[in-house]
Amino acid sequence: MSVDADQVQGDEEYPLSQDRLMTLFSFSQRINQIKDVQTLLDEVLHSAIARLGAERGMIILTDESGETYRTVASETLEEEDIAFSTSIVQTALKDKKTIMSADLQSDARFRNAESVRGLHILSFVCVPLIVPGRPDPLGTLYIDQRIYVKTFTREDAAFLEAFANLAAIAISNANLMDRLLTENITLREEVGKRYDVPGVIGQSKAMQKVFQSVTQILDDDSTVLITGESGSGKEVIAKAIHYNGKRKSGPFLALNCGALPETLLEAELFGSVRGAFTGAIDKQGLFQAAGGGTLFLDEIHHTSHPMQIKLLRVLQENEIRRVGGTKTTKVDVRLVCATNEDLRYAIQEGRFRQDFYYRINVVTIDVPPLRDRREDISLLAQHFLDKYSREKGKELRGFDARALEALKNYDWTENNVRELENEIERAVIFARKGSRITLKDLSEKLRTPVPVVTPANVFTDQQGRPLSYEELEREYIRRVLSRVGGNKAEAARIMGIPRSTLRGKMKKLDLGS
Which of 144, 176, 158 lies closest to 24, judged by CA? Predict the structure, then answer.
């Protein structure tokens, strides 16, 4: 006698007993609490064997190609006993249906299969593990008899099928959670590598000084102030501190203080309660969201005095109060601030509170501008070339000598490393595939050299008198304009400033039209 899946799942239903329905209910509750894949597989297998009184059982999992890649057997089986009929398993996987046989030796479907004869299988039930929405089964749940004669019934097959349906979804979810956890760990490791202090690009003495400061504060919770010009890499250093320190398993959150008006900035940092202001909702602030991690506040000089007082209280008391709220909440976060201004002058001008400055200035790291570490330019340029070549699928062979020289000689005064990155991305777009980046691939401001001058005629007049800054700027603009025949648009491009800025400077310096 043999029964295939069509008969088990046909028009005639095989109602399960109340005892078996309760078993399914209990099993469902149990397996949905198990997150570890191996523990879940062991539980599914043990329950299936126990409930059907089978001699042995296995879960045979398949990979994406449908090939068997893993077999989970009960602990009682010896290594040599962990074997199954590939014919039976492959049929169940192919047809996506439950198959069973109460007398396999006389079953015309499998009696000539070499694996069936060799294993001396008397009877079996094999159920595909099917997940809704997935085209192919995860594998099969397989039980059999090889020593004692036991006739599996149609109700046994129907029960095992319902059992397998619950198990398949749980296994799929556990696999997904396991994969997500692995990916999360991998991503954290990759991010950590990316912002590893030795991996922050720079071999100049100026950057080595930065690296030394960073390594000394990695496992400390002190507040850090990172200073430097716009685009010099302050946030990269902040991330390096976070992802290499003791808080690396916590979140890293960043906010530009100049990007939001005062009310929204307060709500963004501290959270809000519904109705506190127009459109306010119950919302967690960044200080809470960054719990156990690092909060990076860029352009801290844009905060108002009232906001600085509130931030000062957070640093002193380690607690916040939501906008519109009445109760305080303890927070555990490391604060890293950044600015491209000299806050000492801001204090003198009354724009920044001195007490707040000293509170955030426990450790100061000054990131040097790119023009002060020219020996790093070739390293950074190659890094960005590799990055954008991969992103754009365009293989390039580095830089020729003239292009690299132009990159090294340019001052990058507008946006430092960010400006260099934009320049390399642009060059990758215009360069010919398989070639080197040449001078013609660079933008006009790098292709047109600024007139070469010597220290003697830069800083002194004909009588050897030191020039003032205003006189030096006037001479520089005059020479650039002379070089381009008075074309102000061209001169502005060479200087890396807007044309309107050049006109303003010319008017201020009385350079005529």
Answer: 158
